[in-house]
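Aim 2 progress update. The chain analyzed this quarter is reproduced below.
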Amino acid sequence: MLEEFTSNIFFWILLFLIASLIFTWILKKFTSAKTYWIGSMYKTEKANPIFDKFAHHEKTINFLTELGLILGFGLIAVDFLYGKKMNKMKRFGLWIISILLLYFVFEFVFGIFSGSSFITEAYTNVFGLNLLSFVFALTGFAGFVIFSLAITAVDILTKTLSGIKACPGVAPVIPGVEIPNVPLVIPLHAWISLLLILIIHEGFHGITARKEKLKVKSSGLLLLGFLPIGAFVEPDEEEVKKAPALKQLKVYSAGPAANLASIIVFILLLSVFAVIVSPQAESIKRDHITGIKIIGAEKEITFCGEKFDAPAFGVLKKGMLLKEVNGVKIQLAADLEKAYAGKALDENFVFLVEDKGEEKTLSLKRNSQGQFGFTLQEIQGTEYSFSDSAFLFAYYFFFDFFKWLIILSLLIAVVNFLPIEPFDGGRIARVIFPSYFGFWKKEKQKKEDLIMKAMFYGVVFLFILNAIPLFF
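Predicted structure tokens:
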């Protein structure tokens, strides 16, 4: 009875609410935090000396914030920062060079990370990767996100009207909570990742504001019960608005720029960790894992309403032992990555399997998603010692933690470049966009407000369309 009760989601919600009420009451009683039932906001000025300490690195801050602007708004930012000061010929040359550089940078990065995912298929087969790259070159992440939302909205509407259940294009980021119709669950430990990312984001806003000699009134944390859900830096908004355009832009772009820069740091740390620790983890596993067995082969693969063939179905069968793939001996699941590395999507893979004591050679090709459609399991021989188990747990936790740190850093950076308020991109857009509407004879403030309202309603409409699968 107790086990059934504690397995119920409502038990954990109730437990969280009770713990949150107690924690919030303690905060209200013994600290200066502002509390609202189970929500709290803690403000302090103690971070200002830290901001001042880092604000002396002016060249680094200028480089990161201007690079952030360019990645966030592409050619638009390049032209606003540098092009308006040039004559027509030089300005046109700057446009061409900027478009080409941003185009190829995006193609290179997107090519590395996209692999053969459904995102690649959706954009390369229908629209071509060159269009994505061109959109990024012209408008940066701001336009890229809007373009992606528009394409996904069309896909969702088409599938929904055809009676096909699509995946949502947007979903709330709630670590540890499985969102309906979302094929991805963010682990609970990502709360720590989110907090760290937000501290980096808001901290760099504070550092840049102090570097630009602008007042920072306070900084702090937002709490839901005992869980940190946000961080903030509170500059003097009126002082920022009165500052020159370039100063404003640097302060606004600082947060997402810091998140993008931190991704490089996280990848380097993860790479160093992998080089140093991975051999020991692999050695431990090889001492205890004797091989790989097939535990199933899907008839077809369904993802976001799309159906794909499963080449392994009827070929690789449950109970088969996987011995080699393309001449690479398979003992651990990680060995498959070595066998797959560098292989073209349409290339033949030669599998050596053992079926009921008999060795067989089978030939397979991956589907358009780069998958075979079989599941496997490592066969454990001897038991792990406590120290080995603890080492492997820490090893895999570290990798997963940094993986989500990188993914969420990118997500938060990219979303914050959306050209709608209250995102950083909205504040940037309010400074940049009206300057290109000089032909529109209207009062400056009204012009800004109308442009920003049009952007806001357009993006919100796309968000609503992308959220349809969350409710149907």
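DSSP finds 14 helices and twelve strands in the chain. The longest helix spans residues 245-288. These observations will guide the mutagenesis experiments scheduled for the next reporting period.
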